[in-house]
Amino acid sequence: MKAKVKLSTVVDAMEMQSDETHQYLHIPTGEFRAVTDEEFSYAEEDEPLDDLPDWQREVVEVAQRILQTDEYIQLPDKYEIHEYQIMERFCLSIDDDEMRNDMYNAIKGKGAFRMFKDKIHYYGIEQDWYRYRDDTFYEIAREWCEYNEIPYIDDREKQEN
Crossing angle, helix 112-123 and helix 83-93, to 10 degrees? Predict the structure, then answer.
């Protein structure tokens, strides 16, 4: 049985990932668990976990279940989400030709994320960016749920009101 998940919860979990920390959905309960690369290493070693603190031992046991069962599904990671492409599409969606070209040129080369942030503040389009980014993350979450046949509740409209 698959538990329903809220899209907002899926988006929150996607945003909490990093290079070393990955989020997994426990299909039966609909709960997300964060597991680090280090904890997966412990899980693969098959060594006693007595030296670990209780909280980490619990996460290593989750990592073991992730590796040994099909009860968990990994969320899209940052490479699948590809925030740079989201920024690029946002720039190209701007109606004003001059602003669009300036924004697009700003994200080419070194320091793209910093330049992008500076430009959205300069043009006063921070809210447009965050709305665009949120919409994209929700779409990624929706597609992920549908692809993995995870029932979901689109609670976005309720949050915006």
Answer: 30
Buried b (16+ CB within 10 A) or exposed e, 110-124: eeeeebbeebbeeee
pLDDT above 50 for 161: no
Which are the contacts of 111, defined by CB distance < 8 A and separation ≥ 6?
none
Token pair recorded at residue 142: 């929706």
Would you give the DSSP letter of residue 29? T
Q: Are strands 5-6 and 152-153 parallel, antiparallel or unpaired?
A: parallel
Question: pTM of the predicted model, to two decimals?
Answer: 0.86
Cβ–Cβ < 8 Å for 58, 33: no
Cβ atoms within 10 Å, residue 1: 6
